[in-house]
From TrEMBL:
Source organism phylogeny: Bacteria, Bacillati, Actinomycetota, Actinomycetes, Micrococcales
GO molecular function terms attached to this record: protein-disulfide reductase activity
Domain named Thioredoxin: residues: 1-107
Name of the featured protein: Thioredoxin
GO cellular component: cytosol
Pfam family, one: Thioredoxin
Keywords, comma-separated and alphabetical: Disulfide bond, Electron transport, Redox-active center, Transport
Amino acid sequence: MATTDLTAQTFEKTVLDNDIVLVDFWASWCGPCRQFAPVYDAASQDEGNDGIVFGKVDTEAEQALAGAANITSIPTLMAFKEGVLVFAQPGALPQSALQDVIKQVKDLDMAPIKEQLAQEAAEKGGPTA
């Protein structure tokens, strides 16, 4: 599966409608972004990663989205599982580190995380997950 360009209009739906979504926040002028791009693209083509959405957000074209995601350094990789942000880290990862992140996200048990989110929401008087 190839990478998918995400915009302010498609970001939330993509994250909520897919089990695992990785998002690379990048810009064309960014050297480390250009270094990370082939690593990220190769991971998106890996058959072992079928079912994972590999999204890309051009921070120049999507400045409001990058701001809403609190992006202060690029590239930044974010991972969402079942609609919950479970990983965010700036910097260009080598292939082995990216594969390690993907494995950890795949293996992550979301039940205790969702339970904690529901408890926090209940304490704040908000809706539960």
